[in-house]
Amino acid sequence: MLLEEMSYVEVEAYLEGKDIILVPIGSVEQHSPYGLFGTDFLTAEAVARETGKRMYILVAPTLPYGMSQHHMAFKGTVSLSPLTFINVIKEITISLLNHGFKRIVFINGHGGNINPVKTAFDQLKCENYSGIFEIISWYQLEEVKSLVEDIFGENEGHHATPSEVSITKYLRQQAFKTKPTAKKQVEKVDVYWPLNRYEMKKVFSDGRMESAPWLATKEYGKIILEEAVRALEKEIKRILNYKLLEE
Ligand code: NI
Asked: What was the pLDDT predicted at 247?
């Protein structure tokens, strides 16, 4: 059920029966020496695509770039500014609305995206666009949080987490041949937020945020991904149940 593999004729047929589409979004940002640049979009994409497959729901191509300005002191990070990102989300949504999609659900893998995406939704409503716009961050789903708490406890942290790294180990095992495995200290810090790139590197010098990514395994990744898909299926059912308010 991937938009990138369909023709417009097939999209027309889909829209005769359904008005929902999932759009995976993430970031291209450093995930410490232990994790991949693609962590956030690879995880969101895997959760969205598997859910789409099970529920016969269309999944749009992944938007890999997100709002990652605080990671810019680390080589390789590519970030959209908040205002640009808001406009990208807005225009993706308007394009989909234009064709008759009414339930537009962004499946997210990156914390920095949440505020701008919600602001984009507020702006769309301000401009009187009708429809259901949601952002669901897979790692914030209650079932996922409780599973991850059971597996990693306090070592999960907030960035380059063992849960997201586990999923990418499951998806892209080869890429980890060149990554370190040695344990380090997990330091808890009390810091204000948001941070600019220099503040970020000063506080979180190797790019982790209170996490222990060396605990990640592909086996955990498989279990966490499955739990995320099951939890997302429930959320999608909730969204499908809403009655649209026509003008
Ligand atoms: Ni991440």
From this structure: 61
- For residue 7, the CA-to-ligand 1 centroid distance in Å is 33
Report CA(127)–ligand 1 centroid distance (Å).
Answer: 32
Beta strands (DSSP E) in the chain are 20-25, 58-59, 103-108, 132-137
For the whole model, what pTM was predicted? Answer: 0.97
Fold of 3-241: Rossmann fold (3.40.50)
Q: How far is the CA of 10 from the centre of ligand 1 (A)?
A: 34
- Between CA 9 and CA 45 the distance in angstroms is 24
Could you read off the pLDDT of 163-214 as tens digits, one per residue? 999 999 999 999 999 999 999 999 999 999 999 999 999 999 999 999 999 9
Q: What mean pLDDT is predicted for residues 220-230?
A: 98
Domain parsing of the chain, residue ranges: 3-241
Element spanning 168, H or E: helix 162-171
